[in-house]
Design goal:
The complex is a heterodimer of chains A (about 625) and B (about 140). In chain A, helix 6 (about 525-535) runs antiparallel to helix 7. Among the domains of chain A are: about 1-105, no CATH class; about 475-625, no CATH class. Chain A is built from 8 helices and 39 strands. In chain A, about 20% of the residues are buried. Chain A has about 625 residues and is mainly beta. Chain A has a 39-stranded mixed beta sheet that branches. In chain B, helix 2 (about 35-55) runs antiparallel to helix 3. Chain B is globular and about 45 Å long. Chain B starts with a helix and ends with a strand. The chains are: A mainly beta (about 625), B mainly alpha (about 140). The interface between A and B is medium-sized, with 32 and 26 residues.
């Protein structure tokens, strides 16, 4: 074997400062160095030398440092090549990195090949086979890369792959203005996490062809295939100097929503109400961009089922055709066979509207609900600052309370609910209404006014309203809630009601016997229960007295007020006014039931302040305890 | 009342005015409970079981603004990193809502920033040894 002294090229301590002194940008300068090296290798004039050793003391940039770089390049085909260095990324510690090619082949001028090169470093390791054809002697540039058992990760681990097997190829021919190129990526195996997306396995591919110049990257055709999801065809022009998309056309096949949602949609919808869904059916999308702006798109859903996993809402057998154009108004159509919203069942609906640039309009949307329907009239919506703002008029055709109470899991109630709301607005997550919703319940009326809601589908929904109860039949009411029989009628006002997460946090409530003539009787059980609301002592007092021999008493007035603030209910009786905090005189009681005639009973309350949770617990014990008859 | 007394009284008044905002905050009830707060706390409590392992491994750390962040996902299997991301973003959603709710429940929505910074300190104090947190300059430190 001929022994020649190897050439040694020394670079020592190349730093940013050195690079900055050079007028060429660093990337360009490295390219130049590499090119010079590569070209000198391709040249036949170096026959007398057996190998070149390149040693570099240190390379540094703000995020990256390398030291003790050592590269041994043989100048004869078929010999091993080894590159070793020490690497350091930002604040991590130094680590060894090496690339070893068992045999670097040079079968023809400008062609270099290496099978099963081993790359080992903290950021990437695995087997790499590479074949490189340099653009010399009228040959096109060609690079074929095969990765096997390849893993990589950035420092924080938000872009990482494991056990990847993939083929990458790139071919390019120089023309008058740049390069005509063809590229292919065939990802066969392995998993990849590219924040926020995760691909558990391979089977995906990308084939593309186009032109590259200093001004623009042009994609004439590109086909992306995602296993088990579908495919997309893309073409376009990206302006490299202006950094914008000049043209883009995208057309997908019918994509399987069941696989598309977890792979691509869920990560993108992470911060929305659609972040925990289950989907089925297909979706297809077509879109075009011009000069950096969306020009038109068309989204079609076929036989789609979408359901929130937490049960907040669902739509089934959804068919949608949503075309959109920057220039012209487009009719959109959305049909579904059924669904539910916050436990309220929705019937089949056919919705039609007109979409004009960033606004939506329709004269009427009818949403069947149970045996009635919610009709939305003169609907207009606008997409402003990445949010929808709605404005409409709503009418609720009567829904039977029997069905609604069953659907909501409430005690079964007779009656119906209807509403006429002249104005509903939804903006910035807040739903506000003017007008009133009227429930016909227990032979009386319940009116809900000044209703507003905040983030009804969020984690902490909030509701504000004023509620009026008029002339409710206490007989029907006490039977429904198993409270113990009371005969008579009642009015109530629950003002400044605020629910957070559907639980009361504030109200001024007052319930009193309605005015007018009607039979007024209260059972022993109801008396005990009312007393028990104020604590155990009062109930015991009634039982011990002679009054326990009577099953029923006459009364003149019943009244109870509660002002709820800070989880505590300030209570008062028939003469109370919840709008003002009661005088905190614990010594004197207040009248809850004012007796009249014979036998008469008067129930006094002594508890001026009761914890709301305690009050609810007492109510629950009472209604649960009374669901079975008590024999005395 | 002589003039000296009047002046002293005036200075005292000024001092009270200046100290008032601080003492007012000191009076903020961080343990205040509303249905929204207890929903948020329950939701965070449930999630904590899943997050604890990630605090322990250093994958997730406590940030100086009372939230949490993915610090080094390499400690987590690739298949679970998306899950960690979702946990972190859900937890931060709850934490932001919690600070707002506590300030609102105290009747002072403008206290949100102070509630947040008090909680940021609390989370670090309550953290177990080995967990990572951000110091005042934003650098990661191990407790």
């Amino acid at each position: 074997m001929l022994s020649h002294a190897p050439h040694r090229l020394w670079f020592s301590g190349i730093s940013d400062a050195d690079l900055h002194r050079n007028p060429l940008p660093p990337a360009r300068r490295w390219m130049m160095a590499l090119l010079t090296l590569v070209l000198s290798l391709a040249s036949p004039s170096l026959h007398a030398v057996s190998s070149i050793t390149v040693q570099i003391g240190a390379i540094s940039s703000p995020n990256f440092q390398a030291s003790d770089l050592n590269l041994e390049l043989p100048l004869h085909s078929g010999k091993a090549v080894t590159l070793k260095t020490r690497l350091k990324q930002a604040d991590s510690s130094w680590a060894e990195a090496s690339l070893h090619c068992p045999a670097l082949e040079n079968p023809q001028a400008g062609m270099w090949r290496c099978r099963d090169a081993k790359l080992a470093s903290p950021q990437a390791n695995g087997n790499v086979s590479v074949a490189l054809q340099l653009p010399v002697a009228q040959q096109p540039f060609k690079a074929d890369l095969q990765l096997a058992a390849f893993s990589f990760s950035d420092r924080v681990g938000l872009h990482a792959g494991d056990k990847l097997a993939a083929d990458v190829s790139l071919q390019a021919t120089h023309d008058a203005t740049g390069w005509r190129w063809q590229a292919a990526l065939d990802w066969r195996e392995g998993e990849l996490f590219w924040q926020p997306f995760y691909f558990a396995s391979g089977g995906h591919s990308l084939h593309a062809a186009g032109h590259y110049s200093a001004q623009a990257l042009q994609v004439d055709t590109a086909q992306l295939k995602l296993k088990a999801v579908g495919s997309a065809d893309v073409s376009g022009i990206y302006n490299l100097s202006g950094k914008r998309i000049e043209q883009l056309a995208l057309q997908t096949s019918a994509l399987d929503l069941a696989t598309l949602y977890p792979l691509l949609l869920k990560p993108l919808l992470d911060k929305t109400s659609l972040n925990d869904m289950e989907m089925a059916g297909t979706a297809s999308l077509q879109l075009a961009m011009q000069a950096g702006e969306l020009q038109d798109f068309r989204l079609d859903l076929q036989q789609a089922d979408i359901a929130d996993r937490k049960g907040k809402f669902a739509l089934y057998k959804l068919q949608a055709s949503i075309p959109w154009s920057y220039d012209a108004a487009q009719p959109i159509a959305l049909d579904y066979a059924g669904g539910h919203l916050l436990d309220i069942p929705l019937g089949a609906a056919r919705l039609r509207a007109e979409l004009e640039r960033y606004s939506l309009r329709t004269p009427q949307l009818v949403l069947p609900i149970l045996d009635g329907a919610l009709t939305l009239n003169e609907v207009s919506a606008a997409w402003v600052n990445q949010q929808w703002h709605w404005h409409l008029r709503a009418d609720l055709a009567p829904i039977s309370m029997t069905e609604l109470s069953t659907a909501l899991g409430w005690p079964r109630m007779e009656g119906q609910v209807a509403a006429a709301i002249p104005q509903v607005t939804y903006s910035d997550g807040k739903l506000a209404t003017s007008g009133a919703m009227q429930f016909k319940l227990f032979d009386g009326t319940v009116t809900v006014g000044n209703l507003s809601m905040q983030t009804p589908l969020g984690l902490t929904p909030r509701l504000n309203a004023d509620v009026q109860f008029r002339n409710l039949d206490l007989g029907a009411l006490t039977r429904t809630f198993a409270f113990g029989a009371i005969e008579g009628r009642m009015d109530g006002d629950v003002n400044v009601l605020q629910l957070a997460n559907w639980k009361p946090v504030q109200f001024d409530a007052m319930f009193k016997s309605s005015a007018g003539r009607y039979p007024r009787k209260i059972s022993q059980r109801a008396v005990e229960n009312i007393s028990a609301l104020g604590g155990a002592g009062a109930a015991a007092a009634v039982q011990r007295s002679v009054l326990r021999f009577f099953k029923e008493f006459n009364y003149a007035r019943i009244g109870l007020t509660c002002r709820l603030r800070n989880s505590s209910c300030a209570m008062d009786g028939v003469d109370g006014n919840p709008a003002h905090a009661p005088v905190n005189n614990t010594a004197s009681g207040y009248v809850i039931v004012e007796g009249s005639g014979v036998p008469a009973i008067t129930v006094l309350g002594y508890n001026h302040s009761v914890g709301w949770d305690e009050l609810l617990a007492r109510l629950q014990r009472i209604t649960a305890g009374n669901s079975k008859p008590v024999i005395q | 009342m002589n003039i000296k007394q009047t002046l002293t009284g005036f200075y005292l008044f000024l001092a009270v005015l200046m100290v008032a905002p601080i003492t007012a905050l000191a009076a903020a009830d961080l343990e205040v409970n509303t249905p929204a707060i207890s929903t948020l706390k329950n939701s965070m409590q449930t999630r904590h079981g899943q997050l604890a392992a990630h605090y322990g491994s250093g994958a997730v750390g406590l940030t100086r603004d009372g939230l949490i962040a993915v610090r080094d996902a390499n400690a987590v299997l690739l298949a679970q990193r998306q899950g960690v991301n979702s946990l972190v973003s859900a937890e931060n959603g709850d934490r932001n809502a919690l600070y707002k709710e506590i300030a609102t429940a105290n009747g002072h929505p403008e206290w949100e920033a102070e509630v947040r910074s008090t909680f940021a300190q609390r989370w670090v104090q309550k953290a177990q040894g080995g967990w990572w947190y951000q110091d005042a300059s934003g650098g990661w430190k191990q407790k």
